[in-house]
Amino acid sequence: MTELKAIELEDVVKEYLSHGEVVQAVKGVSLGIEEGEFFSLLGPSGCGKTTTMRMVAGFEEPTRGVVRLHGKDVTDVPPNLRDVNMVFQSYALFPHMSVWDNVAFGLKQRKVEQAEIARRVGEMLEIVDLKGREKRRPRELSGGQQQRVALARALVNRPRALLLDEPLGALDLKLRQAMQIELKRIQREVGITFVYVTHDQSEALTMSDRIAVMNEGVVEQLAGPREIYEKPASEFVAGFIGTSNLLSGDCSDGVLAVGGGRVLVPGGAGAVSVTVRPEKIVISTEEPANGVSAVPGTVGEVVYLGTYNSYAVSLADGAEVTVFQQNAQDSTTTAERGDSVWLSWQPQHSYVIGS
Fold first, then answer.
1. Which one of 56, 135, 215, 257 is least enclosed by Cβ atoms within 10 Å?
2. Are 277 and 340 in contact (CB under 8 A)?
3. How far, in Å, CA of 183 to CA of 148, rounded?
4. Residue 164 has pLDDT above 80, yes or no
5. Inter-residue contact 239 to 213 (CB < 8 Å)
6. Residue 129 to residues 99, 164, 209: CA-CA distances in angstroms?
7. Which residue, among 39, 3, 28, 67, has the nearest Cα to 223 in the 3D structure?
8. Which is it for the CA torsion 207, 211, 214, 220, positive or negative?
9. Quick one: pLDDT band at residue 128, thresholds 50, 70, 90?
């Protein structure tokens, strides 16, 4: 027997009327999210990711299509009758209530017995690492602690799925990175399906089991983080996820002529677009041996970024290639602005988009 998905969207469309014209915010999205999965909807502003999540939560009704939770059609079911909870970027904590009362609020509304409330709130505060701060008010907490209170309040009701809409957006970079690890730990401990909306690629790559990359209302690629990074399905995904170099042209006998050099594309033929990640490229002052892709260029800019240098290298045909070089102790390349260099990489690191 096939196990039911935690969440299913079947050909979901959302249309709005804007200035007398019909605008499609979501264009026929179909996907399935597994039980206990950390699933991210990733894309730029206006791509339809938040609208998609709001249709799962019940705050928006699809124009067409079906939303299922655990096999049940909930397309027309109001939000309060869906077994999901939502966490927003604003936290929406009650400022006059203590941490304990904020977390216990939903249980009290459902008239859960006091002993059960005490047990469940205590357990949840321990999971989110807030034990000992039960009596504090939200204003006495840091941004990360307030975020954990919001999580505890949503999780203490034991929803089948938790929906998170850019929940770390208000935090500074260092705290946001720490909270990414915390969120993944909490999700593993409670075992609940998390659906996470973000425009931050590193955030999605860090936490997700799978990612749906959205663009202009459609899912461009749905896969695990490594596959999306290493094997982008489209030029949009290649450019949006991290930094990528896109090289295009006619390929003959597995070789793409680019900027006076060669890009080895095993099995490639005809017009192709190839992507290669900056960290896969080696920068050197001497022409590499045969067996690797090798392209000459001129260093335009060098940016020191602590753990690595970023090089912008201009090719003879006008294309610009970005190279990341780790600042290791044994690093011998010290290319400067204006230097003539060679870029090289292994054939398997040239990925043909759409292959």
1. 135
2. no
3. 9
4. yes
5. no
6. 12, 19, 24
7. 39
8. positive
9. confident
Least confident of 97-106, 212-221, 331-340: 331-340
* Strand-strand pairing, 193-198 and 38-42: parallel
pLDDT value, residue 143: 84
Report the C-alpha gap between 34 and 7 in whole angstroms. 7
Cα 278 from chain centroid? 19
User: Which tokens sit at 140?
Assistant: 């006495």
pLDDT in tens, 260-301: 899 999 877 889 999 999 999 999 988 898 899 999 999 999
d(CA 252, CA 265): 9
- State the DSSP string of 188-246: HHH--EEEEEES-HHHHHHH-SEEEEEETTEEEEEE-HHHHHHS-SSHHHHHHSS--EE
At 12-30, the pLDDT tens digits run 999 998 888 999 999 999 9
- The predicted model gives 51-71 an average pLDDT of 96
- pLDDT of amino acid 256: 92
Residue found by looking up tokens 């080696």 in the block: 282
| Rounded alpha-carbon distances, angstroms, from residue 155 to 56, 93, 138, 233 | 17, 14, 18, 35
Contact 297, 259 (CB under 8 A): yes
CA distance linking residue 355 with residue 235, whole number of Å: 12
Q: What is the pLDDT of residue 166?
A: 87
Tokens of 255: 């070789």
Burial of 203 (0-12, 13-18, 19+ CB in 10 A): buried
**pTM of structure:** 0.88
Is 63 within 8 Å of 13 (Cβ atoms)?
yes
pLDDT on residue 330? 59
Q: Read off the tokens for 284.
A: 């050197």
Q: Give strand ranges (E) for 70-192.
A: 72-73, 84-88, 161-165
Measure the CA–CA gap between 353 and 249, rounded to whole angstroms.
12
- Partnered with residue 309 across adjacent β-strands are 304, 325
Q: Report, as an integer, the average pLDDT of 51-69.
A: 96
